[in-house]
Amino acid sequence: MTQSLWYRIGLPVGVFVIFVAIWQILSVTGTLNPVTFPSPLEITIAFGELVTRGYFWDATRITLLETLLGFIIGAALGLVIGALTGTFRTFRTAFYPFVVAFQNTPRVALAPIFLTWFGFGITSKVVMAAVICFFPVVINTVAGIAGVDENAKTLFRSLGASKAQTFFRLTLPGASAMAFAGIKTALTLALLGAIVGEFVGASEGLGVLIKELNFQLEVAMGFAVVIFLAVIGLVLYGLIELLEKRLITWARD
Amino acid sequence: MTQKDSIAVTGEAITLTGVSKTYMTASGALPVLRDIDLHIEAGQFVSFVGPSGCGKSTLLNIIAGLVSYDTGTVTVGGQPPREGRDDIGFMLQKSVLMPWLNVSKNIELPFIIARRRGADTAQRVTDLLELVGLSDYATMNSWELSGGMQQRVALARALALDPGVMLMDEPFSALDEFKREHLNIEVAHMSERFGKTTILVTHSISEAVLMSDRIIALGANPGRMVGDITVDLERPRRPEMIGSDRFQQISNEVRAALSQGMEESQ
Ligand SMILES: Nc1ncnc2c1ncn2[C@@H]1O[C@H](COP(=O)(O)OP(=O)(O)OP(=O)(O)O)[C@@H](O)[C@H]1O
Ligand SMILES: [Mg+2]
């Protein structure tokens, strides 16, 4: 059954409105402590004030830069390493165990180390974001390559395809839907990596801003930044989905 | 130019002498084929029938150059088989169309792989589409087609480089009976018209009788020839022939050869 567009958009919007309304009522009636739990109205007002401040946009730029650079580096490396791992058995035997082992350690624990290595500038955050991005892309690319249809490989062999032809005309497109799923996950994780990196130590960025606002007990503004981050995450995800729809036209549900 | 002109009449003879094959598996050596001697005339339509696991696909894959053999010699058109010979067309049970390519592009794939795409390729693809009755579907996505249509695309792709030999491994066995019979008749007619040497692997005795000039019955453990039956039904073949006495006689001959083979295996 396919749901109508109105239904698919209207329902979550409705849920959101009801949620905000209840929150506002709880705030107005004093059930929620106004100091630690500002009302939606206060958050909105705080956000209106925030957007007039230059440092807010500077912080946004920095965090976005860290996120996107980390994403591009991490995803690109993930694709290359994933393609090598998926294609060359020796490479897989030599390196894949480390990928799997590393995959299961909490990578955010590396943030303090990256801080000592790369300092308070954006580099440590870019590296953090890249490292987090890398793994889902590698793992999905390898899985995508492993999932290429055996019959299709036989067909390519019977046609006498060279290694390069098989790679570019079968393996790559065949694995791309799966790899792209990893890339989508990676983009969301990149934002997380950048913010975690900023929490651990940075001079600028939205993560830094959240910490500072919290210290100053500007809780409403802190909330506003968090919600702004959620929106950034949504927009990035929407963009990457658009790209996916354009690139991978054949993957049906 | 019509489709008839652009698809040449080009059969090639196939000869196997003393071919044996043993697979090395985790649980030890598995002899699959023993001492296969078989000569197929250019333009002949031959079916391999036999119980599951008797080595039909292995034998076909050896002729396609996809699987190595341990002893004996194999020649297709006087040359040993190998992957990527333009004169051998290969078709599997699954259509294996590339979902990222549309119908035309799928048929064009062999030209691209063989680096033989030229000025006349587009016309050739059009002719092939017409031949398999898919002219209106050229720009469709392959996954939008029905199973039968997908196998038609695969057939066109196998015919793309105009091979003298067509090797088909249970090509229509995933289709419903009606579509299957329909496509079988079409393939029979194509081979009549174009004189391509064709080998069909099938589980169906009536399918083998309907299409072939000759049926090779194989027995299992290890795979060996247990019968070589000539099908002298007139051509062009028609579905109604299935009801004829001669058809039944030949079917029974094949059945007898197969059950004799089964007994010897036990
Ligand atoms: N690559 C392989 N490695 C090891 N054993 C194999 C391999 N391919 C096939 N076999 C074995 O060889 C035997 C013959 O297989 P083959 O696929 O040729 O049989 P078949 O007659 O085509 O069977 P079916 O009718 O089920 O398709 C089987 O026992 C099979 O398990
Ligand atoms: Mg088989």
Automatic annotation (TrEMBL), chain A:
<keyword id="KW-1003">Cell membrane</keyword>
<dbReference type="InterPro" id="IPR035906">
    <property type="entry name" value="MetI-like_sf"/>
</dbReference>
<feature type="transmembrane region" description="Helical">
    <location>
        <begin position="167"/>
        <end position="200"/>
    </location>
</feature>
<feature type="transmembrane region" description="Helical">
    <location>
        <begin position="95"/>
        <end position="120"/>
    </location>
</feature>
<keyword id="KW-1133">Transmembrane helix</keyword>
<feature type="transmembrane region" description="Helical">
    <location>
        <begin position="126"/>
        <end position="146"/>
    </location>
</feature>
<comment type="similarity">
    <text>Belongs to the binding-protein-dependent transport system permease family.</text>
</comment>
<dbReference type="InterPro" id="IPR000515">
    <property type="entry name" value="MetI-like"/>
</dbReference>
<keyword id="KW-0472">Membrane</keyword>
<protein>
    <submittedName>
        <fullName>Membrane protein</fullName>
    </submittedName>
</protein>
<feature type="transmembrane region" description="Helical">
    <location>
        <begin position="68"/>
        <end position="88"/>
    </location>
</feature>
<feature type="transmembrane region" description="Helical">
    <location>
        <begin position="220"/>
        <end position="240"/>
    </location>
</feature>
<feature type="transmembrane region" description="Helical">
    <location>
        <begin position="5"/>
        <end position="26"/>
    </location>
</feature>
<keyword id="KW-0813">Transport</keyword>
<feature type="domain" description="ABC transmembrane type-1">
    <location>
        <begin position="56"/>
        <end position="244"/>
    </location>
</feature>
<dbReference type="Pfam" id="PF00528">
    <property type="entry name" value="BPD_transp_1"/>
</dbReference>
<keyword id="KW-0812">Transmembrane</keyword>
TrEMBL record, chain B:
<dbReference type="Pfam" id="PF00005">
    <property type="entry name" value="ABC_tran"/>
</dbReference>
<feature type="domain" description="ABC transporter">
    <location>
        <begin position="14"/>
        <end position="245"/>
    </location>
</feature>
<dbReference type="GO" id="GO:0005524">
    <property type="term" value="F:ATP binding"/>
</dbReference>
<dbReference type="InterPro" id="IPR017871">
    <property type="entry name" value="ABC_transporter-like_CS"/>
</dbReference>
<keyword id="KW-0547">Nucleotide-binding</keyword>
<dbReference type="InterPro" id="IPR027417">
    <property type="entry name" value="P-loop_NTPase"/>
</dbReference>
<protein>
    <submittedName>
        <fullName>ABC transporter ATP-binding protein</fullName>
    </submittedName>
</protein>
<dbReference type="InterPro" id="IPR003439">
    <property type="entry name" value="ABC_transporter-like_ATP-bd"/>
</dbReference>
<dbReference type="InterPro" id="IPR050166">
    <property type="entry name" value="ABC_transporter_ATP-bind"/>
</dbReference>
<keyword id="KW-0813">Transport</keyword>
<keyword id="KW-0067">ATP-binding</keyword>
<comment type="similarity">
    <text>Belongs to the ABC transporter superfamily.</text>
</comment>
<dbReference type="InterPro" id="IPR003593">
    <property type="entry name" value="AAA+_ATPase"/>
</dbReference>
